[in-house]
Amino acid sequence: MSGAPPDRVVVVGNGIAGLTAADTLREAGFDGELTIVGDEPHPAYSRPALSKALLLDDADLTSHELPPAGHGAKELLGVRATGLNLDRRLVTLDDGAALPYDRVVLATGSRARRLSALPGELTLRGLDDALRLRGRLAAGPSVVVVGGGPLGMEIASGCLAAGCRVTLVSQGMPLSVQLGPYLASVFVEAALDLGLTLVETGSARIEGAGDSARAVLDDGTVLEADLLVSAVGDIPNTEWLADTGLVSRGGVIPVDARGLVRPDVAAVGDLAAFPTPYGLRRLPLWSSAVEQAKTAAQALVHGGDAPPLRLQPYFWTEQFGLRLKAVGFLPLEGEPAYVDGGPGGKLALMRWSHADGTGAAVALNYRIPIPRLRRMTRADS
Questions:
Q1: Which residues, at least 6 apart from 82, have a Cβ–Cβ distance to it below 8 Å?
Q2: What is the percentage of the chain residues whose pLDDT exceeds 90?
Q3: Does 3.50.50.60 match the CATH number of domain 114-230?
């Protein structure tokens, strides 16, 4: 172990990254004072469930809940961190309190990027957002969704399943930036078959007044509906760290291969950019946040003796009657080799090969354990 073992650790952020860091600290042998700060009043919950299950009328309203935490930390919920003093090792809070630490985990995640300040522009980022949107869908409103990424498509799928008439506005083909054109086309075809209206545009803005909002496309076309939801990316919550010198371009925090900014500071989850075979990258995925947090917590306790992060990204989405699981770095170019199934089918197991001998494996509506999907990414699989 490098340096004296910590007596006090503060975890700022109560999402899956903060929760995993706290659990892993205990598993790594840290038995000191542990404090978690969370700006939401809710216990940690599954954010992916918000767009995948919670919007559905017949969904289990507990689908987002996680098992009770076992880390035994003092939890300060509904409180926001406002500053970090690296020299004095203090985290300041919006209620005036200051928390001393020996080690600190920065895990404040990100928030929805917005196209306006209008209350009529809804977003889906937190539990309260999901419950509000679910309540609005009960009346079967017409819906415009702005944003063709995974979240926008999942929201559109949930709205369609709720019986709404849905128009989705996307810059180019939905999902192509995230998945690549081949897989994107599979989802777009399924969405259109179910009745989604797709509008591709170079750009869109949101106008209106009060609770009324409409999308205006680059050619002047105006799209109006009872409900407008935007899903156009996220912004790392790092403004509270502006005076620390830790924040880089784009609001992200660069970290080393163990998730550390310095020996006493870790940054994990949506706000961290970590080393990958493709350079420093920010991967705002649930599975990425979990693996980053495990690695960084070990490093805070064991220093250089802790193993570095060797992330093999895992992404999944459920929308328009399709369920996709993907292991490997995305997006994917070209066509896959089919391990099972074939083009045009709704059940398939696919592999993409890269020049360096690595690959990516994708299961479409295919029940397969994730470890086997990971093995398929190897050249000798």
A1: 92, 93, 94, 240
A2: 86
A3: yes
